[in-house]
Amino acid sequence: MSVNLKKTIRTVPDFPKSGVLFFDITTLLNDHKAFGYSLDLFEDYLKKHKVNRIVAIDSRGFLFGGALADRMNLPLSVIRKKGKLPFKTYQADYALEYGTDQIEIHIDAAGKGDRVAIIDDLLATGGTLDAAVKLIEKTGAEVAAIGMVIELTFLKGRDRFADYNLLSLVQYDSE
């Protein structure tokens, strides 16, 4: 069964601020056929790359990453915003429109021999994903695949990941 995922994603103009077009995946999640189909696509892709661990990025990546880990019977690790993880962490900075922020992963969340899939909802400029890749590599694990629900191709974030296997389910070519 094929589903047009783009038709299940709501676009919200001027959110969270004027001039921004927000791509809302809650409508995709609310459509069980579309959500299941997106998981099918990710699962097929991750199997091809012999992934043995899922790492999901805070917070919408948790929705897809958790479901995939359960479905594929794989361990799930999380990357969270600074200060949200209770144990020892590796940290990586990433650029924001005005300044920087930081994400973290537990030092024991992955390691040598792990072939990790990083899962998140959106690839824009690639700042958060770049920081996530650095965190995975600090653990000694290999980034075997990357899965994004949405890719904003006009921002050219994919260009930063030419050396990685990256799948995006839906692409938007302009703002």
Concise description?
The chain is α/β, with parallel strands linked by helices. The protein has helices at residues 26-29, 32-48, 60-72, 127-139; strands at residues 10-13, 21-24, 53-57, 76-81, 89-96, 99-106, 115-123, 142-152, 166-172.
Helices and strands in order:
Layout: E1 10-13, E2 21-24, H1 26-29, H2 32-48, E3 53-57, H3 60-72, E4 76-81, E5 89-96, E6 99-106, E7 115-123, H4 127-139, E8 142-152, E9 166-172
Parallel strand pairs: 3-4, 3-7, 7-8, 8-9
Antiparallel strand pairs: 1-2, 4-6, 5-6
Report on this model:
Helices cover 27% and strands 35% of the residues. It has 175 residues and is an alpha/beta fold. Strands 5-6-4-3-7-8-9 form a seven-stranded mixed sheet, sandwiched between helices. A two-stranded antiparallel ribbon has the order 1-2. Strand 3 (53-57), helix 3 and strand 4 form a beta-alpha-beta unit. The protein has a single domain, classed as Rossmann fold. The protein has helices at residues 26-29, 32-48, 60-72, 127-139, and strands at 10-13, 21-24, 53-57, 76-81, 89-96, 99-106, 115-123, 142-152, 166-172. The protein contains four helices and nine strands.
